[in-house]
Protein 1
Amino acid sequence: MNAARYEGHNDRHERIEFLGSKEKPQSKRKLGAVIGVLLAVVILAAVVAFLIWLFVFKDAGEASISQQRKPSVLVFSGHMEMPDLKYQEKLEDTSSPEFQELAEKLESVLEENLKKDPLLATYYTKSVVTAFSEGVIGYYWSRFDVPVADREVVPELSEELVSETLESGIMEQQRTRSGSKIKISEITATFTDPRMAREPRANECFFRLEAGEMMSSFSSPGYPSGYPPKSRCQWQIRTSATNVISVTFPFFHVEDDCSDDFVSIYDSLSPDDSQAITEKCGHRPPSNPLEVVSSGNIMLINLITDTMTQRPGFLANYKALRKSEVKTCGGVLSESSGVFTSPLYPSFYPPAVDCKWTIKVEAGKKVRVKFNLFRMKEPGVDIFECHKDYVQVMGKKYCGELSSLALTSNTNTLEVTFHSDESYTDKGFSAEYVAYDPGNPCPNMFACASGICIARELKCDGWNDCGDMSDEMKCKCDKEQFNCGNGLCKPKLWVCDRVNDCGDGSDEESCSCEENEWRCGDGTCMPQDVVCDTKTDCEDGSDEASCKTSPGICSDFSFKCKSGDCVNKVNAECDRVNDCADDSDEAGCNCGTRPFKLNRIVGGQNAELGEWPWQVSLHFLTSGHVCGASIISEKWLLSASHCFVTHDAANHVASNWQTYSGMQDQFKHEDVQRRPVKRIISHPDYNQMTFDYDIALLELSEPLEFSNTIQPICLPAPSHVFPAGMSCWVTGWGALREGGQKAQLLQKASVKIINDSVCNVVTEGQVTSRMLCSGFLSGGVDACQGDSGGPLVCFEESGKWFQSGIVSWGEGCARRNKPGVYTRVTKLREWIKKETGV
Ligand code: 4AZ
């Protein structure tokens, strides 16, 4: 940026000198020459002063000012119907004389009508008819240019003004039969991104496609090497009147920021927002392809690219589907259990569809429906009203993105209706239903009010297992529980642990410290002035953990810059803010990101491909998967010592191990990178009895190639704080239950960081400062055998994932009051750096 500014400055100097020499007076008289030189000097000084002001003082606001200097371009697009015209196929060809003639006529009708409004007339530039389809429907856009001086009128140039002007214009023309003889029965106008306004007759990156029963393909320009910047491409797709169009994108990789580059898809031939199917950017994995369907026989796809960063673009397959196939949905479901989905699921459902399912089970039974995925998101929709697309059950409408939705009927019949309007579609839903006996809705389990069944032990355990709190209502607290102010019961261990477990704060009130005292994370009281005094007074360091500023002072909780300076800020590393003068806090931050756009299947615990790109599977000789590990650089993996230091010396032999990165399914090796191990470094202080220092580093014999599914995790600085109560994720192919089989598909589980003093109590004092607890005291979610060595990762506000722990040990798996114990990475960060340089 500095360089650019300097060049600009130079440019102008050169121009000044040039101008000056040109204006040098030609007179030979001395006085004249002196006056001339003086004048030139004065002018030169004035211009230099102006330039200094321009570049030095005005620079700060330059970007916004240049933005303001730009005239506003407003574009409205829509369609019009001409009932008296006979449709001819030649109208589909933009180069045919028929198209040209009708387009020109309509463009003049648009101009004539829009100019009837004085405000629109002032700024009107042009109208362009872009296509025709059966009906006869014409698609167009109109453009208005507002100069900088008139910018304040922009809000007045509204969608309403344009559409009302056009509507009253065509009505007037019908009455008087004036202007063109073409009868227009209906016209729409919607505000449109000017980048979408294409001139089809210019034929530049503009394509007309016909969808047939056989699948055909098209791709973005330059695919797969990369699309050029400033692309404005459009694909108009049509099919016969009895069909609809299906487009799937087996490959889709467009810039991540949708404001720069994106693909927008319309259920129309004009980029009319009211008929948008979807707008997408980013990178989609093969497990989550974009699949859309039109409601009628036309579709428009736009590609807009603005960034210089090249991405491969997309490959699209398109074909015609019979309308009757797509729009038939719903029906009567009379089995005792079953599955039903929105039309075309997991493709996007088509616009303008209505379905009704009637679930009718045996008399005397009731119906429970559980939505495993529910996604009907639409811009500008209030999810309490759901006035656009929705699912309706027992009079209530549901829309948006729901993570858990389970409903029960009052009788043996339940009706589920689905509605999609003309604009914006989404993945829809997948639901399962089951008939149940109302006298015994959840045999041997607890029935939540939502209809879900949960293990009986989970009732009144302090955790909201039902999702609607119904398992935590009407509880009688036992002697090990605390009675919250709102009637809930929580384990006494959670009182005064700085986490508002009750929800009403009652478990954190009247904790023993006086007003002028600080309560440490473990409950100890300290004088208030120990806080942020750069000395660790609380055993858990909580008195120094959240100090915002005390520049120049170093404590255990300061981030140490490469220069040796200290930054007293919580989690300063890789937070996208340069805190160190040498920027070392933001160095080595190419980590902890997931390139793929993920498909969030809610409730399931199977991980998706690319969801945890730092996860590695370690195979030992012929035993297959044995332990997990995480990628910390191209050449280094992080794992647990206990995977390698055992009674069997073979475990410590590097050549007995293989590492698999980019894996999700143990039996699928496509795009998986296998690397032998060159060297195993176990921590010299690892203690086989206590599992203290349970950490090991694996050097790979060949570096990894990072990809969408293979990425390094960020390692936290020693000062990094993962507070108690924080939700983190543990992943692995370990046993699905204690003593059970290992998983074939990578599993993920959300677990909470547990307060150190609670951790110490529940492990009966077996944790050291190199360990941390994470999980749930109620049990049910945990790492297990085979997950060892794998990562516990936490998502930070900076948008990056950091590894807080390494799966180490625990008493059994997922038992009550027996959370998982992990190696505390922050405590061993310096050892990792010393051994690997990472
Ligand atoms: C194991 O044996 C193991 N519940 C790993 C984690 C846990 C228990 C056992 C934590 O590898």
Note: The first strand starts at residue 72 and ends at 81.
Protein 2
Amino acid sequence: MITEIQILLNDQIKYEAAASMQYLAMASWADNAGFSGVAEFFYAQSEEEKAHMTKLVKFVNERGGIVTISALEKPVDEFKNLNSLFEYFLKSEIFVTEQINKVIYECLQHKDYNVHNFMQWYVTEQLQEESTARTLLDKLNIIGDDKTGHYLFDRDIIAITAAVE
Ligand code: FEO
């Protein structure tokens, strides 16, 4: 594996791990605030990001590369309300997409079509996750700070998510 690509893939492992911990912190915030539906959504997102991380770790090892597991910064764990929680979710997904695009770009520069092919799975996954985050945030923007709206959003989030996917 080309060193430049190995470095980028290790960075990506860190970003996926950070997203997993970030969503765990968000799940816990929602749990504590009494939004059990939102909490379940973020617990599941946290597991998904962990799976994304592990998939990369296994791939780098299978390709004979060296995996480096990095230390992570403390996730953000204070949010003003549901809207700011989901704004952070979208921001986080946009960041991950940008990093994946960077890996794809470098794969093409170095003609590493094997890694390029592997990363296509992440491109598709990011499209779907960004779309989910945008849809949920759009709904929250319509709801504004209406308490009944937040109650219904929390009750229906799993159904809303299933509809997006
Ligand atoms: Fe695996 Fe949504 O980043």
Note: The chain is about 80% helix and 0% strand.
